[in-house]
Amino acid sequence: NTVAGGAGWPAGPMDPFADTLQRLRETFSSGRTRPAEFRATQLKGLGRFLQENKQLLQEALAQDLHKSTFESQVSEISISQSEINLALRNLRAWMKDEKVSKNLATQLDSAFIRKEPFGLVLIIAPWNYPVNLTLMPLVGALAAGNCVVLKPSEISKSTEKVLAEVLPRYLDQSCFAVVLGGPEETGQLLEHKFDHIFFTGSPRVGKIVMTAAAKHLTPVTLELGGKNPCYVDDNCDPQTVANRVAWFRYFNTGQTCVAPDYILCSPETQARLLPALQSAITRFYGDDPRASPDLGRIINHKHFQRLRGLLSCGRVAIGGQSDDSDRYIAPTVLVDVQETEPVMQEEIFGPILPILNVRGLDEAIDFINRREKPLALYAFSNNSQVVKRVLAQTSSGGFCGNDGFMHMTLSSLPFGGVGASGMGNYHGKFSFDTFSHHRTCLLRSPGLEKIYAIRYPPHSPRNLRVLLTAMETRSCSCTLL
Ligand SMILES: *[C@@H]1O[C@H](CO)[C@@H](O)[C@H](O)[C@H]1NC(C)=O
Q1: Global pTM?
Q2: Residue 272's CATH number
Q3: In the prediction, which pLDDT does 451 show?
Q4: Do residue 95 and residue 133 come from a single domain?
Q5: Counting atoms of ligand 1 from 1, which one is nearest the CA of 239?
Q6: Are residues 32 and 10 part of one domain?
Q7: Ligand 1 atom 4: the closest Cα is on which residue?
Q8: Residue 461 domain-assigned (yes or no)
Q9: Is the domain of 203 the same as that of 289?
Q10: Ligand 1 center–CA 402 separation, angstroms
Q11: Which residues constitute the domain of residue 314?
């Protein structure tokens, strides 16, 4: 049961994906997606999709997550549009063969890295930023010349509908398809062979994806989460820190993979931070955050129940209210939290911020290093040495000193996890590289046999010496071919 393109998948009438995947495979084999013009056309289509359906997307995001227009604009639509523009501006430069340095033995050859599309790639997107985390990888996959199967999250229903019904009209459907379904359908989809899988979601599902990929030796990029520590030094202005932390903890109602998950600070700093956090929350969301147009809601009942359970950990210092009729949870701060409590076992992914006390920087660093490597790590201090020490003595996917979130808005920086928070990265050129095979290429002269003959038997000490010298000596950058 091998189908054109070299993929071994169980074909048959029972398989809802077989026809689509075969069509995409055939397109890729035809070479259609490789020219820069074709890629640019797809990227422009993606840009038009965003421009012409901005209103529709904002409404869908409001339905799914009660996302404010501001947040939809900043963290979903504009950021995706910038990514498209960046890819369009740099496409040809990114696609260019990359010349590498040579030695004397290859001095007359042409040595370079060619960026080739993998072929048929699968993107599995999450529900928390259902536009951003779907389109950002898609930009990279299309820019790199792949055919793409996109699996948006079925949990963010309204956005899924727009992505499934409207987006394909803007792209060439011979190289792009949206597939729908929940865990069962995704499981079926993963039986198929892809050339790369890009997954954003939880570590638990990440393991399922990687296990399925292993059957076909398919490489994966896993954008997972984790509990992102936020160290707050005694040497800081509590109101500045509180503003920044509250902004990003409660952005998208805390349903953000890079949000600060918990604060580590001394009891003294906690005492100064609490009134500052209360003041920030009131300023941001008013006396009744429930009435604020700027505070979102929890995505579904299951997650709401999970989060409500976490409210009983430690002691509620700020907030703590919840209402399941509209899946509302107030911006909450918990204190007196023990490391063993449920709120410290899983990524919170909601508007709940526990504060844990440590005695000084060393204890904070120990605490961080005892746990899985997080996706993001934050340190606040007016002493740059403190920030640099946290950076030097810990590991995480990304790091941001004296703020949250902002490190992932720069497309010149790679975004991704390490250890349990994921593998591989993307954004900007890193996305293009993630979706490209870096092919080793050496074009040698058809002539020059006299020189090349030095490596053939019968061997002599002199030939060995010459050959080793030629291999160890860096050549000038001249190329004959
Ligand atoms: C650092 O100190 C300055 C001056 O006191 C203050 O304005 C600023 O908010 C402080 N920054 C932080 C992160 O604490």
Answers
A1: 0.94
A2: 3.40.309.10
A3: 86
A4: yes
A5: 9
A6: yes
A7: 237
A8: no
A9: no
A10: 10
A11: 229-416
Same domain, 266 and 219: no
Residue 140 lies in a domain: yes
Are 258 and 296 contained in the same domain? yes
d(CA 416, CA 125): 15
* 263 & 126 share domain: no
Lowest mean per-residue pLDDT among 59-68, 215-224, 347-356, 459-468: 459-468
How do 376-380 and 398-401 pair as beta strands? parallel
**103-160: pLDDT as tens digits:** 888 888 999 999 999 999 999 999 999 999 999 999 999 999 999 999 999 999 999 9
Both 81 and 216 in a single domain? yes
For residue 244, give the ligand 1 atom closest to its CA: 13
pLDDT value for 132? 98
And the tokens for 362?
């060393």
Percent of the chain with pLDDT over 70: 96
Reported as type and span, the H/E element at residue 433 is helix 429-434
Report d(CA 269, CA 233) in Å as an integer: 8
Q: How many domains does the chain have?
A: 2
Pocket of ligand 1 (CB under 6 A): 236-237, 240-241, 380, 382, 402
End of a domain among 385, 416, 447? 416
Residue of the CA atom closest to atom 8 of ligand 1? 237
In a domain, 470, yes or no: no
Active site residues: 223, 257
CATH number at residue 89: 3.40.605.10
Instruction: Quote the CA–CA distance of 289 and 474 in Å, as a whole number.
Output: 65
